[in-house]
Amino acid sequence: MTMLISMAAFALASSITPGPVNIVAFSAGARYGVWPGMRHVLGATLGFTLLLLLIGFGLYETLQQWPFLTRIIQWSGVAFLLYMAFRLATDNGQLSLGDKAVGPSMIQGAVMQWLNPKAWLASIAGMGVFVANGEATLIWQFATIYCVVCYLSLGCWVFAGSFLSNYLCSAARCVFSTGSWRCYWLAVRCIC
Fold first, then answer.
1. Which residue has the higher pLDDT, 15 or 65?
2. Which of 17, 20, 28, 169 has its CA 20 to 30 A from that of 152?
3. Which structural domain range is residue 111 located in?
4. Pairwise CA distance, residues 117 & 115, whole Å
C-alpha cells in the first residue's frame, strides 16, 4: 500500500506542475472551454501512459543500445520547445472567445507528450524508482495510477483556464499572463 501511495504522489508531483502540456491545457480551457480542452487532456494522458509503458517494458534499454535514437528524440524536443517559445513570443495577447477554431486534438496531445522533455524525464525517473527490477505487475500498476492522476491533473489546468477565461479577456491581463509564461519559460530554460 505504501508503494502505491508513493507512486500516486510521484505522479501528482510530476503531472500537476507547469510544463508545455499543462500550458496548452490551460490555454485550451481558456480559449475553447472545458470539453474541447479535455480532448487534448485525454490524448496527452494516453500518449504519456503509452510512453511510460514502453519505457517500463524496455524502450530505455533500446535507446541506450542505439544512442542516435536518443539524439533524434532530444532534438525533436528542442525543436518543440523552440516552437512553443516562438508561439509565446509572437502572441498578440488577445483572447478571442468567439473564435470558432477547433482546440487541440487528442493526437496533438499525445504527440506533445512524446516531444516533451518533462514527460521523458518523469517516465524514466518513475520507472527507475518504482520498477527497477522490471516486474510487469508493478509496471502496469504504476502506469494505471499515473494515467488516472495525469488525467485529473491536466484536467485541473483545463478547468482553471476555463474558469479564468473571463478574467483573461481583458487585453492587458492576457498580455500580463502571456508575459508571465514567457518569463517562466526563460527561467526554466536558464536553469536547465
1. 15
2. 169
3. 2-191
4. 6
